[in-house]
Amino acid sequence: MDKYFSDYSEGELLPNLLKLTDKETIGQSEFEGFLFAELTLTDELSVRTKFNVKYIKKIHKLALGHLYAFAGKYRTVNLSKGGFLFPAAQFISKSMDAFEYGVLSRIPNRYFNQESLVRDIAIVHAELLFIHPFREGNGRTARVLANLMARKQGYQGLNFDKIDDKVFPEYVSAVQSAANKDYLPMERIITLLF
């Protein structure tokens, strides 16, 4: 079964600009794109960097623009994973506007303690993954953003390798908890990754 419910049939590859036809080569191209985006945006990072919806779209476009026409654009298909249905595509724009107004616009330029930074990274990460605004690459976009939020404050990026098979179910549950504005499960995970 395909990892997401969408308009594409089981096992079908997403159409791509490079006309790649095997999952391994596509996966490598996506990996290289996200690595490029993270390195580029880390180099550009400054105390004046604002994390907003435009910036999130920029991460996605930098990472996948070489491969997919939909890079940096909101998805137009409905998606689900493991029986969990993400917000409908028709509501993505409004959901992202609310996310920007209610969450992103409140991120301070400077944090005075790690606990406040962890809390905000957890909220941003959980909400972005819950909304799932893109057709592909949502988790990787959210991880790049989390790393950039930490680096802006002088920390290293988070160690997402700690989300192993044992922690992954807790991670998925933490994303789902965002539906109820419960961010404590994601805070515990982000603390683990620092």
Question: What can you tell me about this protein's structure?
Answer:
The chain is mainly α and 194 residues long. It has one domain (23-193): Fic-like fold. It is 51% helix and 2% strand. The protein is built from seven helices and two strands, in the order H-H-E-E-H-H-H-H-H. It has helices spanning 23-44, 53-64, 92-102, 114-131, 138-152, 168-177, 184-193; strands at 80-81, 84-85. The protein has a two-stranded antiparallel sheet. Strand 1 (80-81) and strand 2 (84-85) form a beta hairpin. It is globular, with a radius of gyration of 16 Å. The N and C termini lie far apart (34 Å). Residues 1-10 have low confidence and may be disordered.
Layout of helices and strands, plus pairs?
Elements: H1 23-44, H2 53-64, E1 80-81, E2 84-85, H3 92-102, H4 114-131, H5 138-152, H6 168-177, H7 184-193
Antiparallel strand pairs: 1-2
